Each structure stands twice: as structure tokens, then as C-alpha cells.
Amino acid sequence: MDHFLYRDGALYAEDVPIAEIAAAVGTPFYVYSTATLLRHYRLFDEALDGTDHLICYAMKAASNQAILKTLAQAGAGMDVVSGGEYLRARAAGVPGDRIVFSGVGKTADEIRMALMGGVRQFNVESEPEMEVISAVATELGVTAPITVRVNPDVDARTHAKIATGKSENKFGIPIARASQVYARAASLPGLEVVGIDVHIGSQLTVLEPFEQAYRKVAELTERLRSEGHDIRRLDLGGGLGIPYTRSNEAPPLPLEYGQLIKDTLGHLGCEIEIEPGRLIAGNAGLMVSRVIYVKSGEGRDFLILDGAMNDLIRPAMYEAHHDIVPVLEPAPGTEMQPYDIVGPVCETGDTFAKQRHMPPLAADDLIAFRSAGAYGAVMASEYNTRPLIPEVLVRGDQFAVIRARPTFDEIINRDTIPEWL
Ligand code: LLP
């Protein structure tokens, strides 16, 4: 459920007409709903009710500080994967003890930054990384809390580019080697083992892979405890999928996911962390774009938009489907017609949808890409020297620009020309 609904024939974000935002900020832009963000956060919070838990929002999904602050004020922690994300979370007011640091390639500088600024734990992905964390912590005279990310070798049954839990993926240490790696962790100075971490992939639409992974984590917890490790925290990663279309079968709900966590791991008495990103932000955001031209091609009509693959890369990168809706609600009985919906970038890959049925549209009409809140703005680029598009946050009948569109001068002046030219 989200808060982007038609009212009086026009699409709204909560109580604000999308067309009003478009008139104020220009197109294209991203718009997020505070109510949807909070609703999704609370669904997880309620799903883990009765269990000691922290929901560490995977801020890679949508990392604007206004979004982070909205969630942090509701009680969320953050899952960060770079020094930049760490600083951004801190700038948004998230305390260090609510930040978990994930990622396969943390550098010594990033580790130092987090140890000095405060961190809940590092999710360690390899033995070489563990040694660097130990060395940096020792040098600073502090103790680094760690979990080790185990790779449980389960098939997440999702898009290959976002599956992470198979043994051939670069993530984590093989679960079969966990005893050795934990023994090594216990022997290194400056480290305190607090738990286990697992994350098997993103956009999972069934619970079975989670169940397989979490059962393995339960077994491992008992084994590691019997080997003398104080396993008291389990970070279970993110990955619960969202409905990208209204027609297909809906993925499991956070409540069912929470129940699965309780069923598979509840008996261990561990503190539970989860790292959802997409489910919190995905359906809390739209990308709004304007039709520049309607072009008749060979046997097909193209809607050429002012938004492009650089603004929303998911269709080009993962063949992802996004529902696309007109901002003016079609009158009942309007006959739909197929369009190829494309951006102005000079590549055929700059195609959002082929033969998508839409009401008849004309130049200047506004359309909205649904489910664009996660992995939308954060994956945008300035390809073709197209400015990163603004982000807007709505709350009730208010809206605010939370990242302005840069000027062309700002973009162009970032280049520096060597003196020999
Ligand atoms: N934790 C870790 C360690 C992760 O690697 C990820 C996502 C998450 C949590 C959050 O997963 P989520 O709850 O959002 O599924 N750009 C791709 C998705 C990449 C996901 C990367 N890792 C897309 O647009 O589909």
C-alpha cells in the first residue's frame, strides 16, 4: 500500500497534487511519501514485536538525509556500505551505535572513520578485512564489534545481478569455514565477536530461501556457542521483495517474514537486526516525467520523455518493470493504446517499457513511474551531462525539495582544465 492515489481525476502524493510539484520544481523529479516510508518501517517493527530488534534501513536504497532522518526519528538504525554513507547517516543525526557497516571492500580509512565516529558493528566479509579491522582498532586503542557475514549457499531465486547468497557470489565467507574464521576472529586483538550476519539477495518474492538461510544460521549459532563464542546478535540482512505491478502475486508480507524469523531463530534469545531497503523505500517513491514528444515510428508510437535511463537505470540494467501511470486519471472507458516509452539518451537501452498500454498521451502530459523510491535516485548519473534530478518529500499537505536540481554551471565547473591546455 502506498500514498500515491488518484483524487478528483489527478494523481496525488498524500495530499499534494503531483502536478503542483511539477509546476514548482520542473520535471523530471523524484517524490517520496513520508506516510508510506513510515508505514513500511512500522510494518517491520510490528512484525518483530516481542523480539529485541533493530531495523537498520539499508540506506543504499534511497539515501537522502531527509529520508534517513524521517526513519531515524521513528527509531530506525542504518545499514551503510561506504564511508560516504556512514558520514551521510551521521549528518542526518543517526547515532553511531545505530549504524551497522556492511560491504565487501571496506578500506582502512573507512574502518578508521567508523571506529572513531562510533559504530554498532562491522559485518566482516573476509579474513583479510578482519585483519585490517583488528589492526586499525589496535592502532586506535579501541575494540571493534564484529559479526562475520556467512554465505549460506542458498538460491534466493531472484535476478542474477542481485542474488548474493550462492557460494559462487563474492559475498561473505563460506558457512562451512565459519568455525575456523570465528576462531581466528577470537584470536585477533581489537575485535569483539558479537554475532553472525547473513544477506542472501534482494527482491525475494518467496520466503523459502530466507527459511533455508535462517535455519543454517540457527545451527551455526549453536555450533559457535559450543565453541565458546558469545553469539548474541543476528543480522539477517534485507531482501524482502515488493510488488512492482498491481496485477502479479504479492510477495510475502513483513508480518509473515517476521514470523519466519521468530520461528527459525526465536529460541536462540539473540537480538535481531534486519536491513530492509527496497521494501521501505521502493513503493514510497515515484519518478515523475513529462512527455516531450509523441513520435510515430514503424508500426509503433514512441513516448519520448524528459526522464531517461540516467535518472532511473533499473529497466535498462535489470530489465525491471515499473508501472507507469498518467498523472491525469483516464476517464472511465478510455481506450488504451500501446506505446514504447523511452528517454532522450542516445542508446536503445534507454527504453523504459515496450508496447505499454496507456491512455492516449500528448506532448507536455505528465506521467509517473511507480515503485521508483528504491534504487532510483541513488543510482542516477549525469550521463549525457543531464543534471541529477531533484528529490521532493511530501508530508500530508506539505512538500519540500530535499535535493535541488543542480545548475549546468555547477556541473560544468566541476571539471578542471590542466594548465597545458
Ligand atoms: N543488506 C545488504 C548487505 C545488501 O547488500 C542489500 C542490498 C540490502 C541489505 C538491502 O536489500 P533490499 O532490502 O533493498 O532488497 N540495485 C538493485 C538492488 C541491489 C541490492 C543490493 N544489496 C535493484 O535496483 O534492484
Compact summary:
This protein has helices at 18-25, 34-47, 65-73, 83-91, 108-117, 127-140, 178-187, 208-226, 254-265, 278-281, 314-318, 408-412; strands at 4-7, 10-13, 16-17, 29-33, 53-58, 77-80, 99-101, 121-124, 144-151, 173-174, 191-197, 233-235, 271-274, 285-296, 301-305, 324-326, 337-342, 351-358, 366-369, 391-395, 398-403.
Please characterize this protein's 3D structure.
Strand 20 and strand 21 form a beta hairpin. The longest helix is centred in the middle third of the chain and has 19 residues, at 208-226. With 421 residues, this protein is of the alpha/beta class. It has two domains: 4-31 and 282-412, Lyase, Ornithine Decarboxylase, Chain A, domain 1; 103-274, TIM Barrel (Alpha-Beta Barrel). It is built from twelve helices and 21 strands. The chain has helices spanning 18-25, 34-47, 65-73, 83-91, 108-117, 127-140, 178-187, 208-226, 254-265, 278-281, 314-318, 408-412; strands at 4-7, 10-13, 16-17, 29-33, 53-58, 77-80, 99-101, 121-124, 144-151, 173-174, 191-197, 233-235, 271-274, 285-296, 301-305, 324-326, 337-342, 351-358, 366-369, 391-395, 398-403. The protein is globular and about 70 Å long. Helix content is 28%, strand content 25%. Strands 4, 14, 15, 16, 17, 18, 19, 20 and 21 form a nine-stranded mixed sheet that branches. The chain has an eight-stranded parallel barrel with strand order 5-6-7-8-9-11-12-13, surrounded by five helices. A three-stranded antiparallel sheet has the order 1-2-3. The termini are far apart. Bound molecules: ligand LLP. Ligand LLP binds at residues 58, 61, 79, 102, 162, 199, 202-203, 237-239, 275-279, 314, 318, 374-375.
